[in-house]
Design brief:
This protein is an alpha/beta fold and 497 residues long. 37% of the residues lie in helices and 22% in strands. It contains 14 helices and 23 strands. The strands form 6 sheets. Strands 15-16-17-14-13-19-20 form a 7-stranded mixed beta sheet, sandwiched between helices. It has a 6-stranded mixed beta sheet with strand order 10-9-8-11-12-22, sandwiched between helices. The radius of gyration is 24 Å and the shape is globular. The termini are far apart. The structure holds nicotinamide-adenine-dinucleotide (NAD). The site of nicotinamide-adenine-dinucleotide has 30 residues, from α7 and α8. Nicotinamide-adenine-dinucleotide binds next to α7 and α8.
Length: 497
Amino acid sequence: MGIPYTHIDKLFIDGAWVASSERAREPVINPATEEVIAEAPIGGRAEAEAAIAAARHSFDHGPWSQMSMQQRAEVMRRFRDALVENGDRIKALLTAEAGATFGIMNGPQFGGAIRALDFAIEQGLRMKPEMTPVEIRPNPYDPRGNDMIGAASVEHEPFGVVVGITAYNYPFFLSLGKIAPALMAGNSIVLKPSPFTPYSTLLFGEIAQSVGIPKGVLNIVTGGPEVGSMLTTDPRVDLISFTGSDAVGAAIMGQAAPTLKKLHLELGGKSALIVRADADVQASAMLALMCFTMHSGQGCALLTRYIVHNSVRAAFVATIKGALAHWKQGDPSDPSVLMGPLIRAAARAKTERYVQIGLDSGAKLIVGGKRPAHLQRGYFFEPTLFDDVDNRSALAQDEIFGPVGAVIGYDTDEQAIALANDSPLGLYGAVNSADKAQAFRMARRLRTGNVWINGGLNDLTVEVPFGGYKRSGIGREFGSRWLAEYMQEKAIVYPIG
Ligand code: NAD
């Protein structure tokens, strides 16, 4: 039995599987074994063109864009049920293609993705036009005539053709995070996954076909920057929802500017956890450890900068070091493994470069810093912790996207806030303290889209908005306005009588 979904050798365009005009295929590698799991089809200009045309036609002519929320919800529930029915196959693919461990799968990679889809369906069903109160005004053109009376309805309409471009780390979650709000809101979508993880998105074509999503509403084109560039410059595309690095986000902003597209950018992070002197040091250390090792540090919102009060810093570092002795790293298909591999050799080489940068900057290597001796194959890297890190160094400023944590000492709350905010990124933040009111005050001053106090709910919470300040992005995913991000507001004003 092969790995599920790797039999797919075509792209999904206008409700059908279409062979790519590009003859080349891209080997997709299992990062834990370095084995090629399959040769994926690569899309080119012809496929990007066909996918945009199909999405445009389906949006302009319906029926999907003109259905009621109730009608779309019926189809999206079938879509959800089909994903859940195929859950074991999807999880097996995600382990082989993205290196996802058992814990990550039940968290954001699969379980969180289904929760997000449920949330989008419920939100769509709750949406109603906003009616303004009846207004009575003097008639400005005929002050002696009767007053005017009228009201308005603010309608939400689908935005149009959406392009969803996604990163490799949570490929199923990220693609579903574009499909769910875009389709529930009535848009048509063209998805372009990362070339590292094409199958985790191509599978949605099979699911869409099986539940009868009308043709052209969901299209999937693989490929790299050339295809991405076409999708982000074409005038027929109305909205781009991008999840990836800040550098590519900035490039996409430029690509999309001449045609003035709406942009939604979910970018990188280098998030700070502030540990006050009165914090539970054990819990704080475990939170830090969970973050910099989770998915080998390949997460945008992970807390990887630890701003720790100098009075508890030694205990914080020692606790992490002690716990790491029991941290099992290895093949992610083993349910007892807590930490899998990095996605590719280049990601591991980048992590190695940052270890050297850390050492050169005078930071103190506490643990890790090299490839694990017992794992000869696979792109593994040891969980790595530095202490005495200078917040101005590249080790503390750059997103590494590998399993590296940086500890920075401080003495006053003001210093801690200044250090946390001294970052070009602003996705997540956290404050741990026994004084919850002071933690709340500090949370308000962090320049980030989300803040956890004492670990938050330690789970992805789709009910609250998620997104970044500064170079971490523009717009929010999830939360009460999620579908509104994919819709136009239209005010219809009318007289009464
Ligand atoms: P990346 O920016 O290198 O690539 C992301 C996607 O953009 C890929 O599909 C890629 O093929 C495509 N792309 C590259 N150049 C393009 C161009 N010029 N035009 C259009 N598309 C182009 O990111 P990655 O290495 O796949 O993922 C890691 C990054 O993603 C990290 O920075 C991480 O923080 C970020 N991320 C953010 C979130 C979030 O929600 N904020 C979630 C996951 C990952």
